[in-house]
Amino acid sequence: MTTYSFTYYSIPESEDMMLDDIEGILLKNNIECDLSHAAKLSISEGFTNAMIHGNLCTPHKKIIIEIEVNLENLRIDIMDEGEKGIEKINNRKAPEPLAEAGRGINLIQHYSPKVIFEEMESGGLKVTMIFDRNNEKKENILR
Predict the structure, then answer these.
(1) Which residue among 52, 105, 121, 138 has its CA within the 20 to 30 Å range from the CA of 87?
(2) Strand partners of residue 67
(3) How far apart are CA 117 and CA 142, in angstroms?
(4) Region 2-142: CATH code
């Protein structure tokens, strides 16, 4: 098992750095094609949600991404420094079908076989996405 940890500030430039870091990890661990696409899309949506909805684009607030890779699973944790993340998820409105925004959670739930939304003691939201490298059924958990 290999574990990676990255910390980013809530600024737009961080997303490009994060995507480069994720791409490198996926390539290094021979994760490609459909799984790579699903992971990158899910991580990108989770990161954007953490920056915009969790940290409210406050530049000094951090987003932490931890990735664990083994032969069976790819596990990604995205943590923000926001407040009331579960409440925000529970109270979100369904996105319009052609809307440019508001579909992040739906996309994560669609592409990630197992998703866990968990409010941390600090108040921030932790989104865990677990991808079975051999395909797994879908499961969404709110804590």
Answers:
(1) 138
(2) 4, 76
(3) 5
(4) 3.30.565.10
Q: What is the pLDDT of residues 113-122, one digit of tens each?
A: 999 999 999 9
Q: What does the DSSP assignment read for 83-96?
A: S-HHHHHHTPPPPP
d(CA 16, CA 128): 21
Going by C-beta distance under 8 Å and a sequence separation of 6 or more, which residues neighbour residue 2? 29, 68, 69, 70
**pLDDT digit string (tens) for 29-54?**
999 889 999 999 999 999 999 999 99
**CA dist., res. 141 & res. 143, Å (int):** 6
Where do the domains of the chain lie?
2-142
Q: What are phi and psi of 113, to 5 degrees?
A: -60, -35
